[in-house]
Major facilitator superfamily (MFS) profile domain-containing protein (Urochloa decumbens), 454 residues
Amino acid sequence: MVYFEGCPGCAIDRRKAESTGIPYKSFFHIWMITLVSCLPISSLYPFLYFMIRDFHIAKTVEDIGFYAGFVGASYMFGRALTSILWGMVADRFGRKPVIVVGIFTGLVFNTLFGLSVHYWMAIATRFLLGSFNGLLGPIRAYVVEVCRPEHQAIGLSLVSTAWAMGLIIGPAIGGYLAQPTEKYPKLFPTKTIFESCVWLPETLHSHKYKSTEDQSNESLIQQLADSEDFDEQKNSSSTNKSILKNWPLMSSIILFCIVSFDDMAYTEIFPLWVESERRLGGLSLSSDDVGQVLAITGATILLYQTFVYPHIVKLLGPIITTRIMTIFSMALLITYPFIAHLLEPWLSIVLNIASMIKANCIVTAVTCSFILQNNSVSQEQRATANGLATTLMSFSKAIAPAGAGIVFSWAQKHQHVLFFQGGQMVFLLLDIVIFVELIWTFKPFLVFPEDVTS
């Protein structure tokens, strides 16, 4: 294998060739960056109910869910519009610049969102936060490129773990720190959840040479052409004329979008359901209670994704693992309407168990879809492909909270119908989404990459 001097991608490849171990330091950096970038996404949900109430835009209590859905959707809509662009930038200029921009702008716009005093301001700042947070696609490409193939499942599971924990710890932080004048009247809390990512090494190859006029470079290129690794790169490049025509990639992205829709709809509905009054089918719990449940769930995700998931996917493969988890998830949601009839201490025990199982089912399906996507495309298009996945996923997640909020608001107004009262209808519709997810894991809908089937 011939390496180009001064090429950051070649430096990473050389390090992978010389060291067969797991790159713990790089994985830790990736884990921290992913966690920090995901915290602002979901930290608003425990206090969003009260935030909309205090904006005085909802005419009735039952209308709060309607307006809350659009605040949640604005972030995903902004990210959907720009993710492909950020992926193209990452493929052209490197993964690191996009990651740095995403962290910095997250600091700015999340702070502005916290200072919102009007409904339109909350939507605008969330939209801008999503528009400039384009690091999710490049970070998934980065984790595949920074480790050897045998460690990719672990790396991608850590990304999913950090992402899922961010979506869990974010609400926990929001739940504990929401309404500070009521909870901490003598203390003005300050959130410091941001981190720098300037230490990351670049993984994108940058070979600087001038066509065939330079004889020495021509000789070097010929050596590369004769190498087995370069032949594999040429073969993979020839099959990547168009990302949109790469059906193994596109089918795995569609699966990812369905899983993400389920994830975001559930993330929107769960706090609203838990905090709403029992007469409306809810549990009448506080934002502190929601934060505690989600914090415990986040801890289990860390343990599961680190120590359990890699062994499961190694034994069963990503596709069978996804099918099993979707079946578990469907069965679990059927029990949710009955949880509203429990009293303490059984209510807290069952709610925590259900939250843990549901969250780990979702994060398993998400990680498996990451594996399928990144095995369906070569490095030259990997960030763009992940950007496309993030764009389509963001559209899915933009529709999910708005739709979930509308359905939840409608369900609370229909508590006394004959069939599928209130919460039963909400969780039935979620189960239908998961059933579609299960169907999509079979042929001819999902086309398996050769690396996975082999």
Q: What stands out?
A: The two ends are 25 Å apart (CA to CA). The chain is about 75% helix and 0% strand. Residues 188-195, 210-222, 224-240 have pLDDT under 50 and may be disordered. Residues 36 and 194 are 6 Å apart (CA to CA).
